């Protein structure tokens, strides 16, 4: 048997007034996903544990059968690992956004989706100016970069994810210590944030962006700190050899840590202009060498963070006709289990990640379908799998637990 999980990041939403109190999943045209719901079985999965951060790292670890309360130590660690950076015992890693601040407020958590080339130039410049033996910046993808602090720093601090705080004054959401251990680290990071502006504000990259009417990447914003965790290999847990396809370092980092092969797809961007067809084709091809392929698509989530309802619906429709349709046309449904689900809620009106049970579908030739015929947050509540959490989802999917 072969296995494919396709994650539509942030697709789950709340009823929206402009959609007659329906969700984007309810109004989007997605005949291929709905077909799989009709011939498969459905349910609702809790991907964010109670009183836990609503983060994609947490949610995707949950989907894959890992307990975030035991293994999640921060997004920065996973993204560092994706870039080949293995943390030492005395190092703390952070995701480090390049952001736009105007009149003291966060205008864009992505610096207007700054390009890879521009982001790299700015991060390397900061390394020259404020990097040291204790402070090291690593370029990532566009606005998504990495900061590593070495020697005596603490992860006992509270950092505010910038995508959840657009429009906030930065002085309201600076780094805070969680206890006495985190006090010096919080003070150090806040000084680093303010110091970054001195070097970024009038950098040639930003002068050029300003002339072109684009947002300036005039501050860094470190968040999601952590130390290197220990994760059991997926093969050791489930006796299944896996590969992962994603444009997002976070997901690649999880994949590397659990022993997946990373399959890079040309034109995969992590945005709404990603190469959907390429992800489908590369995923299907990967099944020749691997038992399990995990395909992650980020663009729906980014549209949600931007508060762009029309774009979110379009991304869901593109996901359906440009990715899922190809998979349906080219895989053998008699020997391939397929699952589709969001990793978490990203309500377009709130522009931020939220916890909750997300809808999921599992198709397996071993199962008789349930009565659900369309895929969305309401319909899947009636599915035969019901409400589940923890590693129940991945065990059902891989071990073929029947829904009847």
Task: Describe the protein in words.
The chain has 404 residues and is α/β, with parallel strands linked by helices. It has 2 domains: 2-72 and 230-399, Alkaline Phosphatase, subunit A (3-Layer(aba) Sandwich); 80-226, no CATH class. It is built from 14 helices and 15 strands. The strands form 3 sheets. An 8-stranded mixed sheet has the order 11-10-12-1-13-14-2-15, with helices on both faces. Strands 3, 4, 5, 6 and 9 form a 5-stranded antiparallel sheet that branches. Strands 7-8 form a two-stranded antiparallel ribbon. Helix 5 crosses helix 10 (249-257). It is globular and about 60 Å long.
Query: Total strand count, please?
Result: 15
CATH class category label of the largest domain: Alpha Beta
Number of helices: 14
Q: Characterize the biggest β-sheet.
A: 8 strands, mixed
Separation of termini? 20 Å
Mean pLDDT value:
94
Domain module tally: 2
What is the level-2 CATH architecture name of the largest domain? Answer: 3-Layer(aba) Sandwich
Topology record:
Blueprint lengths: L1 E7 L15 H4 L3 H9 L1 E6 L9 H8 L4 H4 L3 H8 L8 E12 L2 E4 L7 H15 L4 E7 L2 E7 L6 E2 L17 E2 L5 H18 L3 H8 L7 E8 L7 H5 L3 E4 L3 H9 L3 E2 L13 H11 L5 E6 L1 H7 L3 H22 L5 E6 L15 E7 L23 E3 L2 H8 L5
Parallel strand pairs: 1-12, 1-13, 2-15, 10-11, 10-12
Antiparallel strand pairs: 2-14, 3-4, 3-6, 3-9, 5-6, 7-8, 13-14
């Amino acid at each position: 048997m072969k296995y494919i999980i396709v994650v539509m990041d942030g697709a789950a939403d709340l009823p929206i007034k402009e959609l007659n109190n329906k969700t984007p999943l309810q109004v989007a045209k997605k005949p291929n996903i709905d077909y799989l719901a009709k011939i498969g079985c459905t349910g609702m999965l809790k991907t964010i544990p109670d009183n836990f951060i609503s983060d994609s790292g947490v949610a995707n670890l949950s989907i894959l059968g890992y307990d975030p309360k035991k293994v999640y130590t921060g997004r920065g660690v996973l993204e560092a690992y994706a870039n080949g950076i293995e943390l030492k015992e005395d190092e703390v890693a952070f995701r480090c956004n390049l952001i736009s601040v105007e009149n003291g407020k966060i205008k864009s958590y992505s610096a207007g989706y700054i390009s890879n080339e521009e982001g790299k130039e700015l991060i390397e410049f900061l390394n020259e100016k404020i990097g040291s033996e204790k402070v090291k910046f690593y370029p990532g993808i566009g606005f998504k970069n990495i900061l590593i602090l070495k020697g005596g720093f603490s992860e006992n601090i509270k950092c505010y994810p910038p995508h959840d705080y657009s429009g906030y004054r930065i002085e309201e959401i600076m780094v805070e210590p969680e206890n006495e251990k985190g006090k010096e680290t919080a003070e150090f990071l806040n000084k680093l944030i303010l110091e970054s502006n001195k070097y970024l504000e009038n950098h040639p990259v930003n002068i050029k962006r300003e002339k072109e009417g684009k947002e300036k990447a005039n501050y860094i914003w470190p968040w999601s700190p952590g130390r290197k965790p220990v994760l059991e290999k997926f093969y050791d847990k489930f006796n299944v050899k896996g590969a992962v396809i994603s444009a997002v370092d976070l997901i690649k980092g999880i994949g590397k840590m659990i022993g997946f092969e990373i399959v890079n797809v040309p034109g995969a961007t992590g945005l709404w202009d990603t190469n959907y067809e390429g992800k489908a084709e590369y995923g299907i091809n990967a099944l020749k060498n691997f038992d399990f392929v995990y395909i992650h698509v980020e663009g729906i989530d980014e549209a949600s963070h931007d508060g762009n309802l029309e774009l979110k619906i379009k991304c869901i429709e593109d996901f359906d006709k440009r990715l899922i349709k190809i998979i349906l046309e080219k895989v053998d449904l008699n020997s391939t289990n397929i699952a589709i689900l969001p990793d978490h809620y990203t309500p377009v009106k709130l522009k931020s990640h939220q916890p909750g049970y997300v809808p999921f579908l599992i198709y397996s030739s071993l199962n008789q379908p349930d009565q659900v015929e369309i895929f969305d947050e309401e319909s899947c509540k009636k599915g035969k799998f019901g409400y589940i959490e923890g590693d129940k989802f991945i065990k059902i999917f891989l071990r073929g637990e029947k829904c009847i």
